[in-house]
Design brief:
Length: about 150
């Protein structure tokens, strides 16, 4: 890390929390569009919905990394998200060939959505936890009753 990078001021926690909320809103909007596209057989809508949902994930991941999560946790979250995307987007024959088929197509799809939803909620919770306000009033350290100071 160069001296110039170390001297950069950190973003305020309210900005990071705003980024996190933008990420979750984009993801939710993409999820709603996806359900509308699949439910009403408006299949032209599905690629746009997937793109918006993935953009929401990227914004949430960026926010969490700005808040200070480590590389190992970032990789783990990416793996869980990728597994969820696999379960959501691949056809049923791919699951059967890979040996990762859970039950029926709908059950596998729901598990994929649950994995993606879990990673989104986990990222946003981490971003909020790492940017929480520190208490201004701290208790004084306890002093040994026998000391003179």
């Amino acid at each position: 890390m160069s001296l110039a990078e170390a001297a950069k001021p950190a973003l305020p926690s309210s900005t990071l929390r705003s980024y996190a909320m933008i990420g979750i809103v984009l993801y939710a909007f993409g999820l709603v569009l996806n359900e509308i596209g699949n439910g009403l057989t408006q299949l032209w809508l599905v690629p746009y919905a997937d793109t918006i949902g993935a953009l929401g994930f990227v914004v949430a991941l960026y926010t969490a990394t700005l808040a200070g999560i480590g590389t190992r946790l970032t990789v783990l979250i990416g793996l869980i998200y990728g597994l969820g995307i696999f379960f959501v987007s691949e056809p049923d024959t791919t699951y059967a060939a890979s040996g990762l088929k859970i039950s029926s197509y709908n059950m596998t799809h729901d598990v994929g959505l649950a994995l993606i939803g879990f990673t989104m909620i986990f990222l946003i919770a981490l971003a909020f936890y790492l940017t929480r306000a520190k208490s201004a009033h701290r208790a004084l350290p306890k002093q040994d009753p026998g000391s003179t100071s």
